[in-house]
């Protein structure tokens, strides 16, 4: 395997990890809200605080479930069950071997990832008839439990030195003071380009550092320790507040004022919504992608200023925390637990002035094509796409159904794998609300949509299920990755190959319906889905298997889809 291929696969795996982490992290706001509201200085209701504590106390298990579902190709709940089984087994094995081992959230992340990958590998496994009940998805929790035993034994031996290394790294980062915080803040912003900042954040917020509460509960990571009452916690969160609540909204205002007066009304609504999103919720990627690639030097300065903010607020002994991000909602929620939290406001106002001045000067001085300054389109204005039609419109803009191999989303981005990334229609994506596009290796594409990304991904998947090949009808020949197939004249497969395909589908009697769709896929309805042999299909060249509903499957087979369908129906 070439280093390029290995690097692509490693990057793809890390990006999938970052995307999958968003599902368990999404439960933290409600946990923090309940925990905070139940405190004596607010509602003083013990059971509400206990409800929030229950989530924080079981984060490792929650991460195991979330990672398993996130890694699963179809996000099936069977993967989540496998994650639970795997975590419980791993935790019990480690406790039996060495009670001193505490993997914390990392145990959930590791076993959840393993469960999701095992689901993808064995969801369609076919067992002998006398064991058929345990085939397919039912086999995945069994396989995960066995894998957890093996991992538990291995980690029981190798984890203590690894744990020592993690603790040492975390302690160095904490002891490094302003320097460590500056490096972390800068890396946090720079890694947004690849989406790997979620991985870094998970270590800092959920692993590094520990604090034992009065009741004997040990909290790990800056976020957990802050809400557990650790007075030293919050340093890895505080510095984001001036940037997200003040700095980036000021950048949006600078872009508005830098736009020609005749076009300010055109971009004002967009920039206002981006600024409010950043200020209230701390979701900043939509703003950042308006200048990340157009003015990389400006984005680099933004990363440096984030690091400076982290170091400055630590130097001022300000401690704040958040459950989701550094927006006004989380500021209000955590203020009662803060140390010198009021100092964030004057620092934030200073950052507002700094960002506004720097951004407006740079945009005008270097004539940067920020919103409102880009060349005007020569074509007619594009009307907003109605909500119910958004999914099909995205499929078409992404090159058609046959071009989409994988559809996923994280907090603010669509994460896609395409057959041909060059087939996308960027102006159409922009008209649909795209804030930016990143092309990755291996056909990967990320489309920045803001907080609506997950909903858009659901609409795309729904459109793919309902629309099929019809969604390819608008694509030009230049956008096709394979020549058009004439269904009336498909090339028949050799008889032996056709027999192998039929056997992999469980035999002729098991195939109720089979048809080619979207030029590169087979839609197969089986009598018994557990008899589908995923390994045999992979050997025959099948690139992907997706379970739709019941015993209906999509097989990604490439340009030979029509030939396979014709041969198996003959």
Which ranges are low-confidence, i.e. pLDDT below 50, for 5 or more consecutive residues? 377-383, 473-489
Roughly how much helix do the residues carry, as a percent range? 55-70%
Biggest sheet overview: 4 strands, antiparallel
Mean pLDDT value: 83
Helical run tally: 23
Plain-language structure description:
The protein has 570 residues and is an alpha+beta fold. The protein folds into four domains: 3-177 and 218-228, no CATH class; 235-365, no CATH class; 387-479, Gyrase A, domain 2 (2-Layer Sandwich), CATH 3.30.1360.60; 495-569, Glucose permease domain IIB (Gyrase A, domain 2, 2-Layer Sandwich). It is 55% helix and 9% strand. It contains 23 helices and ten strands. It has helices at residues 3-25, 28-37, 46-57, 59-71, 77-97, 105-122, 139-175, 178-190, 197-206, 222-228, 235-238, 240-258, 261-281, 285-288, 296-315, 328-334, 344-365, 390-397, 426-431, 453-467, 495-504, 534-539, 561-569, and strands at 210-212, 218-220, 404-409, 413-418, 436-439, 444-448, 511-517, 521-526, 544-547, 552-556. The chain has a four-stranded antiparallel β-sheet. Strand 9 (544-547) and strand 10 form a beta hairpin. Helix 8 runs antiparallel to helix 9 (197-206). It is globular and about 75 Å long. The model is unreliable at 377-383 and 473-489 (pLDDT under 50).
């Amino acid at each position: 395997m070439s280093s390029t291929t290995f690097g692509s696969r490693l990057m793809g795996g890390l990006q999938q990890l970052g995307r999958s982490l968003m599902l368990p992290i999404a439960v933290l706001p409600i946990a923090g809200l309940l925990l905070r509201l139940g405190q004596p200085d607010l509602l003083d209701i013990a059971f509400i605080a206990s409800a929030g504590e229950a989530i924080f106390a079981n984060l490792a298990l929650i991460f195991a479930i979330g990672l398993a579902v996130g890694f699963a190709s179809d996000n099936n709940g069977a993967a989540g069950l496998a994650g639970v089984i795997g975590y419980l087994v791993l935790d019990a094995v480690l406790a039996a071997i060495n009670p001193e081992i505490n993997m914390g959230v990392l145990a959930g992340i590791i076993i959840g990832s393993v469960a999701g990958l095992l689901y993808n590998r064995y969801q369609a496994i076919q067992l002998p008839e006398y064991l058929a009940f345990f085939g397919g998805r039912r086999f995945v929790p069994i396989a995960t439990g066995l894998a957890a035993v093996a991992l538990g034994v291995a980690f029981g031996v190798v984890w203590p030195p690894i744990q020592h290394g993690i603790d040492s790294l975390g302690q160095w980062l904490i002891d490094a003071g302003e320097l460590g915080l500056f490096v972390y803040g800068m890396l946090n912003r720079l890694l947004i380009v690849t989406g790997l900042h979620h991985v870094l954040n998970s270590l800092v917020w959920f692993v590094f550092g520990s604090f034992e509460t009065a009741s004997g509960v040990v909290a790990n990571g800056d976020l957990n320790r802050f809400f557990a009452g650790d007075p030293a916690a919050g340093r890895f969160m505080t510095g984001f507040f001036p940037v997200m609540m003040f700095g980036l909204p000021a950048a949006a205002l600078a872009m508005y004022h830098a736009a020609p007066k005749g076009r300010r009304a055109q971009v004002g609504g967009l920039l206002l919504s981006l600024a409010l999103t950043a200020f209230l919720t701390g979701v900043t990627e939509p703003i950042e992608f308006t200048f990340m690639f157009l003015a990389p030097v400006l984005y680099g300065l933004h990363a440096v200023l984030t690091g400076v903010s982290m170091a400055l607020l630590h130097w001022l002994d300000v401690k704040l925390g958040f459950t989701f991000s550094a927006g006004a909602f989380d500021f209000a929620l955590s203020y009662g637990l803060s140390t010198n939290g009021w100092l964030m406001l004057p620092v934030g106002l200073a950052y507002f002035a700094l960002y506004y001045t720097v951004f407006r000067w740079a945009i005008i001085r270097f004539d940067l094509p920020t919103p409102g300054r880009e060349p005007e389109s020569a074509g007619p204005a594009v009307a907003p796409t109605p909500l119910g039609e958004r999914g099909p419109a995205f499929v078409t803009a992404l090159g058609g159904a046959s071009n989409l191999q994988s559809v996923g989303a994280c907090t603010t981005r669509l994460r896609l794998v395409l057959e041909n990334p060059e087939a996308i229609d960027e102006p159409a994506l922009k008209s649909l609300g795209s804030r930016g596009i990143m092309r990755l290796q291996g056909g990967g594409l990320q489309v920045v949509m803001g907080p609506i990304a997950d909903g858009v991904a659901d609409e795309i998947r729904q459109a793919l299920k309902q629309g099929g090949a019809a969604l390819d009808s608008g694509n030009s020949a230049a956008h096709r990755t394979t020549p058009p197939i004439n269904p009336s004249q498909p090339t028949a497969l050799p008889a032996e190959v056709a027999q192998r395909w039929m056997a992999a589908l469980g035999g002729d009697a098991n195939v109720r319906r089979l048809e080619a769709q979207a030029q590169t896929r087979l839609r197969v309805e089986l009598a018994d889905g557990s008899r589908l042999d995923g390994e045999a299909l992979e050997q025959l060249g099948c690139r992907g298997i997706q379970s739709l509903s019941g015993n209906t499957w999509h097989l990604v087979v490439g340009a030979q889809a029509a030939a396979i369908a014709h041969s198996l129906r003959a």
